[in-house]
Design goal:
Length: 416
């Protein structure tokens, strides 16, 4: 397509970064004043000075995994919603976690993703995400309409009826999960139904394997992906198949070492953390629980925002050792106890049916050659015991020895 949905899609990357961090202090002040949650978490922080990624990285993280308990303590939305917000719907996501919606046009910001996938004014789109309790159907619905599309609110299931609709109304677009699109195509082939009107698709909610994308291509359906959540809305979207996800305009994305506050190096796998400038439902350093990594360079499509590689796993690596929970945050606390430690991984195994912990620490070169290696190992082992209340062995290794896979806790026990 010759134009871009967002006028800033091709702006200078440094100019975008400057714009985001120039408006960040005002937004933080707004959230601190309007939202009970941030009144508490940002209480002793001078947010007027938070105008860079380095300073943003010092702010506390709110984890999606914590929302269940936070919402129980302060229903319905844990005080994350602004007092002045005029919300129109509350949805329930698995957990349960409750998510709000304001019925403003494209509140979830999915229009960017639909536009990049080739959707335009007058397209008819069969929306096969659920409209029942969960927000998925509404999220895609609003994005398609923002591009001028006509939406069929089909929801999932009822395959025969879905095929009837396709034959009767001849939609040229599909949105929903890739697995349900395959179900429709397979059923159409088996029953000799005509679904040839479908020419484009925006899929989300699941990974899209390369082989399945090829099946859609063979069926004449150009298929791209959107990465979105019920909390944040759009996070990133494809413009070219298998070329990474371009970050949505007007959000800040950090890739953070699981269990810590600190961003990883560019290209390293970590947890996706979002700051969204949504004045109805401010999310500041919101940890999604998803793993990804920054993809170097700019997209050939002309959009200049940073890219991430897509979904690379889950960040919540909490496990139980000898009946006690061990969290990635505890491993990070051990790391922070000594400046020599750059990175660590806790390996949990079982020997003769007994749980074992082994902490592998990447340390600076001098720590391995100054003759005090055993002293440092003993110190770290004691810190590990103090933090976790469990005993574990320690190994010191050079920088870049650990795999770049986002793991902080490596569960090696076989419970089958």
């Amino acid at each position: 397509m010759n134009s871009y949905f967002n006028k800033n899609a091709c702006q200078d990357a440094d100019a975008r970064e400057h714009s985001l961090f120039t408006k960040l202090p005002d937004f933080l002040n707004f959230a601190k004043h309007e939202c009970l949650h941030y009144q508490q978490t940002l209480n002793n922080i001078d947010v007027d000075k938070i105008d860079s990624r380095a300073l943003l990285a010092k702010l506390p993280i709110t984890r999606k995994s914590d929302l269940i308990n936070l919402q129980k303590l302060n229903p319905p939305l844990a005080g994350l919603n602004a007092a002045s917000a005029k919300l129109h719907r509350i949805f329930q996501s698995p957990g349960p976690i409750y998510d709000p919606e304001h019925c403003a046009d494209d509140w979830w910001r999915l229009g960017q993703a639909f536009h990049a996938a080739g959707f335009k004014q007058g397209d008819i789109v069969q929306n096969c995400l659920s409209y029942h309790l969960t927000p998925g159907g509404f999220i895609l619905d609003s994005g398609a309409r923002a591009c001028g599309c006509v939406v069929i609110p089909a929801g999932p299931g009822q395959t025969e009826q879905q095929l009837d609709i396709i034959e009767d109304l001849k939609p040229n677009g599909y949105c929903g999960t890739p697995s349900f699109l395959k179900i429709l195509l397979d059923k159409a082939t088996a029953d000799n139904r005509d679904v040839s009107s479908l020419q484009k698709a925006l899929v989300t909610g699941e990974a899209l394997p390369t082989a399945l994308r090829r099946e859609f291509d063979t069926a004449g359906i150009n298929t791209l992906q959107a990465y979105a959540s019920a909390d944040v809305g759009l996070i990133g979207y494809e413009t070219i198949a298998d070329d990474g996800f371009i970050i949505s305009e007007d959000v800040i994305v950090e890739i953070v070492r699981p269990g810590s506050l600190l961003p990883v190096a560019d290209g390293e796998i970590g947890e996706v953390v979002i700051t969204s400038f949504n004045r109805d439902y401010p999310l500041i350093r919101f940890a999604t629980g998803d793993l990804s990594a920054i993809k170097a360079g700019e997209s050939a499509c002309g959009r200049t925002n940073m890219r991430i590689k897509g979904w690379l796993g889950r960040a919540d690596q909490t496990t139980k050792v000898k009946g006690m929970f061990v969290h990635p945050e505890q491993v990070d606390k051990v790391c922070q106890s000594d400046a020599c430690i750059i990175k660590a991984r806790l390996v949990v195994s079982q020997v003769n049916h007994k749980d074992k912990m082994h902490l592998v620490c990447e340390v600076i070169e001098s720590a391995l050659r100054d003759g005090n290696e055993q002293v440092l190992k003993d110190k770290i082992a004691q810190t590990l015991k103090t933090v976790t209340k469990l005993t574990g062995s320690v190994e010191l290794v050079p920088i870049n020895s650990l795999p770049d896979d986002g793991k902080v806790i490596d569960e090696q026990r076989d419970f089958d």
